[in-house]
Write a structure and sequence with these properties.
This protein is an alpha/beta fold and 122 residues long. The protein is built from three helices and six strands, in the order βαβαββαββ. The longest helix has 13 residues, at 79-91.
Length: 122
């Protein structure tokens, strides 16, 4: 799966995703580091990548056409908790199910949307 990880996703998660065989784009350490949310969204759309982030602002794109969004929103985040919630979200859906899917991972619950044509389903 083609994945874009926002700058706030732990390196251990990027490494694990690569080990799992995913094509992971991480802009840390590149000229694109610090890119605006709009710039990130343009890359995600253009390259048809699933977006993984902790930035709740990307939830506004849930009704847009996209390859999937995972947003991790924890009360007391740390890299291990973020890592765990991302892997959990990825394990719950097949690669073919991610198109148009937005998953917000909280501490103990998750919220899941399909694009507006199908509406909220979980």
């Amino acid at each position: 799966m083609k994945i874009f990880v926002d700058e706030n996703i732990p390196n251990m998660t990027v490494e694990k995703l690569c080990q799992m065989g995913h094509d992971v784009m991480d802009i840390r350490g590149t000229e694109k580091e610090g890119l605006s949310d709009n710039g990130i969204w343009e890359i995600v759309e253009e390259q048809e990548r699933l977006l993984i982030t902790t930035d709740k602002g990307f939830a506004y794109h849930r009704d847009d056409k996209h390859q999937g969004i995972i947003i991790v929103r924890l009360k007391k985040p740390n890299r291990k908790k973020i890592h765990s919630r991302i892997l959990q979200a990825l394990s719950e859906f097949k690669e073919s199910e991610w198109e148009g899917l937005t998953v917000i991972m909280r501490d103990n619950v998750q919220i899941t949307w399909r694009s507006s044509e199908e509406g909220l389903f979980q």
